[in-house]
Design goal:
Number of domains: 3
Structural class: alpha+beta
Number of helices: 15
Signal peptide: 1-21
Helix content: 25-40%
Radius of gyration: 23 Å
Low-confidence stretches: 1-33
CATH architecture of the largest domain: Roll
Domain Solute-binding protein family: 77-414
Keywords: Signal
Shape: globular
Distance between the termini: 25 Å
Organism: Nocardiopsis lambiniae
CATH superfamily of the largest domain: Dipeptide-binding Protein, Domain 3
Pfam family, one: SBP_bac_5
C-alpha cells in the first residue's frame, strides 16, 4: 500500500474528529507530484466491494468496473461495453458486445463472458435490487448477447446500466464470492483493498477507450464528516465526498460544488409490527414533522422541503396528480417508539434529534438508536425499529424511479424497511414498471408515488443537495447527481 495512504488510514481510524487534521500526513502534495489522486470517501465497503451490493457504486465512481450500457444526463441509454442493441419483441433484447476490450487480468471480453456475469447476478441471493421481481434468461452467440425477461420490460437497457450488473472477468467469481480486484475493464485497475479502511487503484494502460490522465487513485474511507472536511481543508485529500453542510462554511468556496440530488431524506415507518401498524399513528407522525425546521436548522438551507418521494432533480415530478384526503391523525397518547438512523451522513444524527423533539411534542415517547450504517442496515431491514431515517437515492440504479419504489415499497421488495405490503401500492407499481418510456411512464410513476404516500409508510422530509469538495488543483472530476461517476479518465491534477 502507498505509505502515505496507509498512515492516513491509521490516523483516521484512531483519531477523534478534532484531532484528525493534526495527524494527517502531507498526502496531497505527494499525490500531485506522482499524478495520483487521493479521495476521502464517505462510506466504507459493506460487502467487500462485491458488485452485487451497493459497493458497486464505488467501483463505478472509481472507473474500474463497467457495464454494457451507460446513461446520459436525461437517463437515456448510451453504449458502454455493448455498442448497440435492439428488441425483437416486448421481452427480448439483443446486445452487440464491444470488440477489443480486455480485463485487468489480461483476459478478453466476449459475449460469453458478459453472459456469465449477468447470469451470476440474476441467480444471486439476494438478487441485485435492479432485478427485483424480474427473472432473466441470458444467451451468448458469437459477439451478441440476448437477454430475455419473463415479462415485458421497456427499461431493460437502462437496467443493464446499473453498476450492480457490472461485467467482470470470469476470474472474479469463485463460489459465492465476487472479487473486483484485478478483474474489471475500466481505465483504473483495483489492485489492493484494505478491508474497510482504504483501496488503491492504478492506471490500466490496456484500457479500450481513452487512457486515464491520472497515474492512479488512493482511496481512504472516512465516515466522519468533520474529518473529511478537514482532509480537504489541510490538503490531505484531493477530492472529498459529501462535505457536511455544517463544515461547508469553513472551506474555501472555490473548492465546493453543490449538486441537486435525486436523493430524499425519508422517515420509514414499520407497518408490520409495533405502533405503526395503526394508520392513524402513522398519520400522527406525518402531522408532527416540520420539514422546514430540518432544512433551515440542520441543512442550513442547503436542501429542499420535500413535496413527495421524488424531488427537483426530476423536474417532471412537479406535475403530481391530486391526491385523496390523507388519513386523519390519531392521538399518540405516549406511544413508545424506537427511532433509528446512521452516522455515515453527518446530518442524520442531528435530524434524529430534531425529529425526536417534534415527535415527543406530538405525544410520542421516543428512544434513539444511532450507529454506523454497516452496523445498522441488517436490523433496519429486519424490522427491528419502529422508525428509520434514511437518505435514499431515488434513481440510483436504472435512472428510473420505478425500480427504487419497487425495491422499497412492494410486498416482495428487497429493501422494504417499512415492511409495507399493500395491494393498491403493488398494483400501481406494476403499472409503472410496464409503462412505455416517456410521458406514460412518468404519469404511472407519479401515480405509484401517490399510492405509497397515501399509506404514510414513508414520510419524505427533504431533498438533499450533495456538496463535493475538490482541491483547486483537481481538474475534471465528475459532479454526478446519480453518484455513479467521480474520477473519470479525464480527471487529473494540475501543477
Amino acid at each position: 500500500m502507498h505509505p502515505h495512504r496507509s498512515a492516513l488510514s491509521a490516523c483516521l481510524a484512531a483519531a477523534s474528529a478534532l484531532a484528525v487534521a493534526g495527524c494527517l500526513p502531507d498526502g496531497g502534495a505527494d499525490a500531485a507530484d506522482d499524478g495520483r489522486i487521493s479521495i476521502a470517501m464517505m462510506q466504507p465497503p459493506r460487502s467487500s466491494l462485491s458488485p452485487l451490493s451497493d459497493d458497486a457504486f464505488k467501483l463505478s465512481r472509481w472507473s474500474t468496473a463497467e457495464t454494457l450500457v451507460t446513461l446520459d444526463e436525461d437517463g437515456d441509454p448510451l453504449p458502454g461495453l455493448a455498442t448497440e442493441w435492439s428488441s425483437a419483441d416486448d421481452t427480448t433484447w439483443t446486445f452487440t458486445v464491444r470488440d477489443g476490450v480486455t480485463f485487468h487480468d489480461g483476459t478478453e471480453l466476449t459475449a460469453a463472458v458478459a453472459a456469465h456475469s449477468l447470469e451470476y447476478a440474476a441467480r444471486a441471493t439476494p438478487a441485485p435490487r435492479i432485478l427485483d421481481g424480474l427473472a432473466l434468461e441470458i444467451e451468448a452467440e458469437g459477439d451478441t448477447l440476448t437477454v430475455t425477461a419473463e415479462r415485458e420490460d421497456p427499461l431493460l437497457p437502462q437496467r443493464l446500466s446499473s453498476p450492480q450488473l457490472s461485467i467482470l472477468a470470469e476470474s472474479a467469481y469463485s463460489g459465492d464470492t465476487v472479487s473486483p480486484v484485478g478483474t474489471g475493464s475500466g481505465p483504473f485497475e483495483l489492485v489492493e483493498v484494505d478491508g474497510t479502511t482504504s483501496a488503491r487503484l492504478d492506471r490500466y494502460d490496456g484500457y479500450w477507450g481513452e487512457p486515464a490522465l491520472a497515474a492512479g487513485i488512493d482511496v481512504t474511507f472516512v465516515p466522519d464528516g468533520t474529518a473529511r472536511a478537514a482532509a480537504l481543508r489541510t490538503g490531505e485529500a484531493d477530492i472529498v465526498e459529501s462535505v457536511p453542510t455544517s463544515q461547508a462554511s469553513l472551506l474555501d468556496p472555490d473548492t465546493l460544488t453543490e449538486v441537486p440530488m435525486p436523493r430524499t431524506n425519508t422517515l420509514y415507518l414499520n407497518t408490520e409490527e409495533g405502533p405503526f401498524t395503526d394508520p392513524a399513528l402513522r398519520a400522527a407522525v406525518r402531522a408532527a414533522i416540520d420539514p422546514r425546521a430540518l432544512v433551515d436548522g440542520v441543512y442550513e438551507g442547503r436542501a429542499d422541503v420535500a413535496e413527495g418521494l421524488l424531488g427537483p432533480a426530476l423536474p417532471w415530478a412537479a406535475e403530481r396528480p391530486e391526491r385523496d384526503e390523507p388519513t386523519p391523525a390519531g392521538d399518540p397518547d405516549g406511544a413508545a417508539i424506537t427511532l433509528a438512523t446512521f452516522t455515515d451522513r453527518a446530518e442524520l444524527p442531528e435530524v434524529a434529534t430534531v425529529l425526536e423533539q417534534q415527535l415527543e411534542d406530538a405525544g410520542f415517547e421516543v428512544r434513539q438508536v444511532v450507529r454506523e450504517y454497516a452496523d445498522i442496515e441488517e436490523d433496519a431491514l429486519a424490522g427491528e425499529f419502529d422508525a428509520f431515517i434514511l437518505s435514499r437515492a431515488t434513481v440510483l440504479d436504472s435512472g428510473d424511479p420505478a425500480a427504487y419504489m419497487t425495491s422499497d415499497f412492494s410486498c416482495e421488495g428487497s429493501f422494504n424497511i417499512a415492511r409495507l405490503c399493500d395491494e393498491d401500492v403493488d398494483a400501481a407499481l406494476s403499472e409503472a414498471e410496464k409503462a412505455s418510456v416517456g410521458d406514460e411512464r412518468r404519469a404511472a410513476i407519479l401515480a405509484a408515488e401517490a399510492a405509497i404516500l397515501d399509506t404514510d409508510a414513508a414520510i419524505p422530509m427533504l431533498h438533499e443537495r450533495v456538496i463535493q469538495g475538490d482541491a483547486t488543483h483537481v481538474a475534471d472530476s465528475a459532479k454526478d447527481p446519480r453518484e455513479r461517476l467521480l474520477v473519470t479518465p479525464l480527471t487529473h491534477l494540475t501543477p
